[in-house]
């Protein structure tokens, strides 16, 4: 069975500090189990971040 992923895309404007972006992404990873899939930094300084996390389907056993 292949993994099923949920995705979330975020954009940060160029005025956002790098440390603020890092702390936001770290909090999302620790609390909600998101992981980085793609980070793109554009010439104007804005950042595009795509996160993913695995969707677990639990099956009833009884």
Can you tag this structure with a few keywords?
37% strand, 62 residues, alpha+beta, 24% helix
Structure characterization notes:
The protein is an alpha+beta fold and 62 residues long. The chain has one domain. Helices cover 24% and strands 37% of the residues. The chain is built from one helix and three strands. It has one helix at residues 18-32; strands at 5-12, 35-41, 47-54. The chain has a three-stranded antiparallel sheet, covered by helices on one side. Strand 2 and strand 3 form a beta hairpin. The relative contact order is 0.32.
Mean pLDDT over the full residue set: 92
Summed up, the helix count is 1
Number of domains: 1
Largest sheet: 3 strands, antiparallel
Distance between the termini: 22 Å
Proportion of β residues? 35-45%
Low-confidence blocks of residues: none
The coarse silhouette is elongated
Output the radius of gyration: 15 Å
Structural class: alpha+beta
Got a strand count?
A: 3
Which strands sit side by side, in order, in the main sheet?
1-3-2
Element pattern in H and E: EHEE
Q: What portion of residues is helical?
A: 10-25%
Please outline what is shown here.
By secondary structure, this protein is an alpha+beta fold. The chain contains one helix and three strands, in the order βαββ.
Please outline the helices and strands.
Layout: E1 5-12, H1 18-32, E2 35-41, E3 47-54
